[in-house]
Protein backbone atom coordinates (compact mmCIF):
# COMPACT_ATOMS: atom_id res chain seq x y z
CA UNK A 1 0.00 0.00 0.00
CA UNK A 2 2.61 2.52 1.12
CA UNK A 3 4.97 1.32 -1.57
CA UNK A 4 2.50 1.57 -4.42
CA UNK A 5 1.12 4.94 -3.39
CA UNK A 6 4.09 7.09 -4.47
CA UNK A 7 4.32 5.53 -7.92
CA UNK A 8 0.58 5.96 -8.41
CA UNK A 9 0.93 9.60 -7.40
CA UNK A 10 3.82 10.10 -9.83
CA UNK A 11 1.81 8.46 -12.58
CA UNK A 12 -1.12 10.77 -11.87
CA UNK A 13 1.13 13.85 -11.94
CA UNK A 14 2.67 12.65 -15.19
CA UNK A 15 -0.76 12.15 -16.74
CA UNK A 16 -1.90 15.62 -15.73
CA UNK A 17 1.35 17.12 -16.97
CA UNK A 18 1.15 15.29 -20.28
CA UNK A 19 -2.46 16.24 -20.98
CA UNK A 20 -1.76 19.87 -20.09
CA UNK A 21 1.27 19.93 -22.36
CA UNK A 22 -0.81 18.52 -25.19
CA UNK A 23 -3.65 20.97 -24.54
CA UNK A 24 -1.12 23.80 -24.48
CA UNK A 25 0.25 22.75 -27.87
CA UNK A 26 -3.24 22.52 -29.34
CA UNK A 27 -4.18 25.99 -28.11
CA UNK A 28 -0.90 27.39 -29.48
CA UNK A 29 -1.51 25.71 -32.82
CA UNK A 30 -5.09 26.91 -33.13
CA UNK A 31 -3.93 30.45 -32.31
CA UNK A 32 -1.44 30.22 -35.18
CA UNK A 33 -4.05 28.61 -37.41
CA UNK A 34 -6.43 31.55 -36.88
CA UNK A 35 -3.59 33.97 -37.58
CA UNK A 36 -2.83 32.17 -40.87
CA UNK A 37 -6.51 31.98 -41.77
CA UNK A 38 -6.81 35.78 -41.56
CA UNK A 39 -3.65 36.20 -43.66
CA UNK A 40 -5.05 33.94 -46.39
CA UNK A 41 -8.63 35.26 -46.25
CA UNK A 42 -7.79 38.36 -48.27
CA UNK A 43 -11.43 39.45 -48.84
CA UNK A 44 -12.16 38.85 -45.15
CA UNK A 45 -15.45 37.00 -45.69
CA UNK A 46 -14.58 34.14 -43.30
CA UNK A 47 -14.07 31.42 -45.91
CA UNK A 48 -11.10 30.55 -48.10
CA UNK A 49 -11.30 29.87 -51.82
CA UNK A 50 -8.68 28.14 -53.95
CA UNK A 51 -7.92 31.54 -55.57
CA UNK A 52 -7.11 33.07 -52.18
CA UNK A 53 -4.82 30.17 -51.32
CA UNK A 54 -3.08 30.52 -54.71
CA UNK A 55 -2.47 34.19 -54.01
CA UNK A 56 -0.65 33.34 -50.78
CA UNK A 57 1.28 30.61 -52.57
CA UNK A 58 3.00 33.15 -54.81
CA UNK A 59 4.28 34.92 -51.67
CA UNK A 60 5.93 31.69 -50.50
CA UNK A 61 7.68 31.31 -53.86
CA UNK A 62 10.38 33.83 -52.96
CA UNK A 63 12.48 33.50 -56.15
CA UNK A 64 9.39 33.25 -58.40
CA UNK A 65 10.41 30.03 -60.18
CA UNK A 66 6.96 28.47 -59.67
CA UNK A 67 8.12 25.99 -57.02
CA UNK A 68 8.32 26.41 -53.26
CA UNK A 69 11.31 24.65 -51.67
CA UNK A 70 11.47 23.69 -47.98
CA UNK A 71 13.91 26.59 -47.50
CA UNK A 72 11.56 29.14 -49.07
CA UNK A 73 8.61 27.71 -47.20
CA UNK A 74 10.24 27.86 -43.77
CA UNK A 75 11.77 31.30 -44.38
CA UNK A 76 8.36 32.75 -45.20
CA UNK A 77 6.76 30.72 -42.40
CA UNK A 78 9.08 32.39 -39.86
CA UNK A 79 8.72 35.85 -41.44
CA UNK A 80 4.93 35.62 -41.22
CA UNK A 81 5.36 34.37 -37.64
CA UNK A 82 2.95 31.47 -38.01
CA UNK A 83 4.96 28.92 -36.05
CA UNK A 84 8.45 27.66 -35.25
CA UNK A 85 10.88 25.90 -37.61
CA UNK A 86 9.80 22.42 -36.49
CA UNK A 87 6.10 23.02 -37.16
CA UNK A 88 6.97 24.70 -40.47
CA UNK A 89 8.96 21.68 -41.53
CA UNK A 90 6.15 19.31 -40.53
CA UNK A 91 3.69 21.44 -42.49
CA UNK A 92 5.98 21.45 -45.54
CA UNK A 93 6.15 17.65 -45.48
CA UNK A 94 2.35 17.53 -45.34
CA UNK A 95 1.76 19.99 -48.18
CA UNK A 96 4.43 18.38 -50.41
CA UNK A 97 1.88 15.70 -51.27
CA UNK A 98 3.90 14.03 -54.06
CA UNK A 99 7.04 14.08 -51.83
CA UNK A 100 9.32 15.50 -54.54
CA UNK A 101 10.85 18.12 -52.23
CA UNK A 102 8.89 21.00 -53.79
CA UNK A 103 5.54 22.47 -52.82
CA UNK A 104 4.01 23.14 -56.25
CA UNK A 105 0.70 24.67 -57.37
CA UNK A 106 -0.17 21.44 -59.15
CA UNK A 107 -0.81 18.96 -57.64
CA UNK A 108 0.27 19.91 -54.08
CA UNK A 109 -1.67 23.14 -53.57
CA UNK A 110 -4.91 21.80 -55.05
CA UNK A 111 -4.64 18.57 -53.05
CA UNK A 112 -3.92 20.49 -49.86
CA UNK A 113 -6.91 22.76 -50.44
CA UNK A 114 -9.23 19.77 -50.90
CA UNK A 115 -7.68 18.17 -47.82
CA UNK A 116 -8.65 21.26 -45.80
CA UNK A 117 -12.13 21.40 -47.38
CA UNK A 118 -13.39 18.46 -45.34
CA UNK A 119 -17.09 18.81 -46.32
CA UNK A 120 -16.17 19.27 -50.01
CA UNK A 121 -18.27 22.41 -50.63
CA UNK A 122 -15.39 24.20 -52.39
CA UNK A 123 -14.72 26.59 -49.51
CA UNK A 124 -12.58 26.23 -46.41
CA UNK A 125 -14.33 27.56 -43.32
CA UNK A 126 -12.48 28.79 -40.23
CA UNK A 127 -13.39 25.59 -38.38
CA UNK A 128 -12.24 23.32 -41.21
CA UNK A 129 -9.01 25.29 -41.44
CA UNK A 130 -8.19 25.30 -37.72
CA UNK A 131 -8.95 21.58 -37.27
CA UNK A 132 -6.92 20.45 -40.30
CA UNK A 133 -4.07 22.87 -39.58
CA UNK A 134 -3.76 21.66 -36.00
CA UNK A 135 -3.67 18.02 -37.18
CA UNK A 136 -1.04 18.81 -39.83
CA UNK A 137 1.40 20.88 -37.82
CA UNK A 138 1.47 18.93 -34.52
CA1 LIG B 1 -12.33 34.56 -48.44
CA1 LIG C 1 10.90 28.97 -55.62
CA1 LIG D 1 -15.76 23.31 -46.78
What does this structure look like?
By secondary structure, the protein is mainly α. The protein has a single domain (29-137), classed as Recoverin, domain 1, CATH 1.10.238. It has 6 helices and 4 strands; from the N terminus they run H-E-H-E-H-H-E-H-E-H. The strands form 2 sheets. Strands 1-4 form a two-stranded antiparallel ribbon. The structure holds calcium ion (3 copies).
Secondary-structure map with pairings?
Blueprint: H1 4-40, E1 47-48, H2 50-60, E2 67-69, H3 70-79, H4 85-95, E3 102-104, H5 105-116, E4 124-125, H6 126-137
Antiparallel strand pairs: 1-4, 2-3
Helix pairs in contact: 1-6, 2-5, 3-4
This protein binds calcium ion (3 copies).
One calcium ion binds next to strand 2.
Which key phrases capture this entry?
mainly alpha; 67% helix; 6 helices; two-stranded antiparallel sheet; 138 residues; Recoverin, domain 1
Radius of gyration: 19 Å
**Helix proportion of residues, in percent?**
55-70%
CATH fold-level name: Recoverin, domain 1
What class do helices, strands and sheet pairing give?
Answer: mainly alpha
Main beta sheet: strand number and arrangement? 2 strands, antiparallel
Count of individual helical segments: 6
What is this structure, in a nutshell?
This protein has 138 residues and is mainly alpha-helical. It has six helices and four strands; from the N terminus they run αβαβααβαβα.
Amino acid sequence: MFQTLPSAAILLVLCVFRSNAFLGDTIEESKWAKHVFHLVDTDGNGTLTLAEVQLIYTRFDLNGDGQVTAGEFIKHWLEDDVGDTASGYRMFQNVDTDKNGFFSQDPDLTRTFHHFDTDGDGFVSTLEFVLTWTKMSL
